[in-house]
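your task:
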Amino acid sequence: MARLPRVLPTIGQQGDITYVGISARSALNRPEQTGMPYWSINPYVGCAFGCAYCYARYAHRYLSERTAAAAELLSPDKPAAESPPVPAMPPWLAFERRIFVKRNVPDVLRDALRHGSARHAELARGETLVIGTATDPYQPAERHFKLTRSVLETLAEHAGLRVVIITKSALITRDIAVLQRLARHSRVTVHLSLITLDRDLARRLEPRAPTPDARLRALGRLAAAGIDTGINIMPVLPGITDSPAGIRALIQRVAATGASHVNAGALRLQAEARKRYLPFIEAEFPHLAARYRVAYAGSHDAGARYREGLHRVVRQLCTLYGIRCGRLEEDRTRGPTPDDGQFLLPLGEMAATR
C-alpha cells in the first residue's frame, strides 16, 4: 500500500459509514503474502455489511491506525482546517464504519497484468485469483465507485485465467455481461455467501447485507446466464445456524436454482473477530455465551469432531439433492485443533428429516 497522506479525502458518506479514498501501490496479493494458496484482489478495505461474525476485521487494523494518526479527514466541501477530527474507533468497529476505497486499483492491476509481465505469466499458468477475500467486492460502495466492475473488465482483456468472486450481494448481477465476457476465455466461478434462509435471523447476524431471497434470486440469474455459481454456507454458526433441518432446507433451495456447488465451513474466531462476535453473542444469544467461551478458548477453530460432523451432514445433503459438495475453506497446512465437544450437530435428526 502506498504511503498515506497526512490528510485523507472523504469521498462519500452513508449514514454512520464514511468512505475514504486511498491510492494502492499494488492490486494483487501474492500467496506468500497472505498464506493462502491463491492470489487475491480486494478493491476495498473494510465492509459496510457489518456481519457480526466476519473474520476479515483484522485486515482493517493497519490502515485504521494510520488513519487515526492523520488527525483529521478532509471533507470535499470544506478546507482541511474546518474538517472534524477522526473519531476514536477500535479497528474491529472501524472495519464496518470507515471503508477505504482503492480508487486507482483498476489502473494498477492493468499495469501489473500487461502482457509479458511476470505476474501475468504466473496467473496465465493457471494459478487462481480470488476477488473478495477480506472485503465484499459488491458492498454498497461498489454501486457508486464501480471498482470491482473495472477490475473484471481489466481481467477480461486476458485469457487463460482462473477467477473466483466471493460476495453476498445481488449487485453482482449488474455485471453479468462482463462476467460472460470474462468467462469466454477464462474460468470464472462465483461463490455467493448465504448461511440461513431465515430473513429475521439474517438481519440480526448481517444487518446491512441483502436478504436471503435476494441472494437466491441472484444465484438463479447467474446460473441462467451460464456463470458457474454456488453457495458458501460460511460460516456455520454453532448453536445458531447449524441445525441439519435448516441446512437441509438451504441446500434444497440452492440446488433448485441451478447452482453448481455448495461449500460449507464452521465459524473461525480470530482476535479482531472475537472482539465483535463474542459481545454480540452475550447480547443476542446469552444462553450460548458460556459454551462459546469454552469452545473457542484455546483455538480460533471449532473442535475437530464438530467440523467433521458438519461436513458429514453437508455431504449427505448434497448427495441427496444432486449438487456438488466442496470445501473451499479447507487449509491443508492447518494442524489438528482441540476437540471441544461443546457444539455437536444433532446428527440423529438426519434420519427424521429424510
Observations:
- The mean pLDDT is 83.
- Residues 79 and 222 are 45 Å apart (CA to CA).
